[in-house]
Write a structure and sequence with these properties.
8 helices, single chain, 227 residues, 8-stranded mixed beta sheet, Spore Coat Polysaccharide Biosynthesis Protein SpsA, Chain A, 12 strands, alpha/beta
């Protein structure tokens, strides 16, 4: 079986305002719901796990009540970091997900991810432990040790920007996760980083420019032109 963990517990401070960005209405629909609809419409997904803070769980449940969701819906508490939230979502699947089941982990503020990523992730994980959607870096990229002077020029052909949803095999990833300390988990930026550091096989699959993360007011304005 395949499961999806939707991370919706962030505070989105860079957006400003009193409401976390994933709950901001876009054309009358909370932002996170656009991602939910894509997973809910895919018959290959059997479970949806929503990682949310306690204060917003009622809001999320109300928003979902009007959606056509046929999967089992579970909730998990938001953690103190992104990766802690992922772990809480994985724990919610204990007893439901099998060793070789696949789990998609998605940032709810990437509402325009292509549905092809789901099929590509499933196919890639037939040979790997994890699949990461990426896009090529277009601009020349530089390293600076102090932020003031050029340290190195990085080979653009070898650089990629990661996106979500990431896809992973449940058993290997849970065991890999358990190898890291609480503080190490807090410093990890994505599931693929953790998997790579644990020695798991991470396959790259095609992402898209449209699958951008809503971070600023300008991103939100761009989104309104695309939905």
């Amino acid at each position: 079986m395949n499961h999806a963990i939707i991370l919706a517990g962030g505070v989105g401070r860079r957006m400003g305002g009193d409401i976390p960005k994933q709950y901001i209405p876009v054309k009358g629909v909370p932002l996170f719901v656009y991602s939910v609809r894509k997973f809910a419409a895919d018959s290959r997904i059997s479970t949806l796990v929503f990682v949310v803070s306690d204060e917003w769980r009622g809001f999320v449940a109300d928003a979902l009540s009007g959606e056509d969701i046929r999967q089992e819906v579970l909730y998990a508490p938001a953690g103190r970091s992104r990766q802690h939230s992922v772990w809480n979502g994985l724990e919610a699947l204990n007893g439901r997900a099998g060793e070789e089941d696949l789990v998609f982990v998605h940032d709810s503020v990437r509402p325009l991810f292509p549905v092809s990523v789901i099929g590509d992730g499933i196919a890639a994980c037939a040979e790997a432990d994890m699949a990461l959607p990426v896009i090529s870096v277009k601009d020349a990229t530089y390293r600076s040790a102090d932020g003031k002077s050029l340290t190195a020029i990085l080979p653009r052909s070898e650089l990629f920007s990661g996106q979500s949803p990431e896809c992973m095999r449940f058993g290997p990833f849970v065991r890999a996760h358990a190898r890291f300390s609480d503080e190490e988990i807090a410093g990890i930026r994505g599931c693929s980083e953790l998997a790579h550091r644990a020695g798991l096989r991470v396959s790259l699959i095609p992402g898209t420019e449209q699958n951008f993360k809503i971070t600023t007011v300008e991103d939100l304005r761009a989104l309104t032109l695309l939905v």
